[in-house]
Task: inverse folding
């Protein structure tokens, strides 16, 4: 993605990332996590504001906050950068992601569509559909289809 990216801090197994969003509302800590699903080859990508819970004494990612810091494209490019790093380390793992809202999922579809040529050089990209029983399956990515989410896998 041809946007500036933030520097990332990561753990040894590149499943947790941290960076600072810097924009019109100051600095905000952001987190990205890749977490194994019930299917051990599929990892869920989640990102958002990194919040410290003083009661639990641990951090969590809040993916519903709208920081509105004016750096959306830089944040999304940074998340994509983490996917390149994660998939380079684990090329056989599939990454699943969706927005915390339907509008965010549509935003991700637009971002994929705008960067499809570049992303397709490294990743197989699929749209995720959900059937009436709640089962999720993949179909080839199409720019004009509203998907439940997305799957990517390193080529």
Result:
């Amino acid at each position: 993605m041809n946007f500036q990216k933030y520097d990332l801090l990561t753990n040894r197994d590149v499943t947790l990332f941290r960076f600072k969003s810097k924009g019109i509302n100051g600095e905000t800590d952001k987190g990205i996590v890749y977490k194994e699903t019930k299917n051990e080859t599929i990892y869920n990508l989640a990102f958002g504001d990194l919040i410290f819970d003083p009661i639990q004494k641990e951090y969590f990612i809040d993916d519903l906050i709208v920081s509105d810091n004016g750096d959306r494209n830089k944040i999304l490019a940074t998340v994509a950068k983490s996917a390149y790093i994660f998939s380079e380390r684990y090329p056989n793992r599939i990454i699943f992601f969706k927005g915390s809202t339907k509008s965010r999922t549509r935003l991700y579809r637009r971002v994929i569509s705008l960067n499809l040529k570049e992303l397709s050089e490294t990743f197989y990209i699929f749209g995720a559909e959900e059937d009436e029983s709640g089962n999720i399956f993949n179909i080839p990515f199409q720019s004009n289809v509203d998907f439940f989410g997305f799957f990517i896998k390193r080529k």
In short: The radius of gyration is 15 Å. The chain has one domain: 9-154. The helical segments are 72-89, 102-114, 116-120.
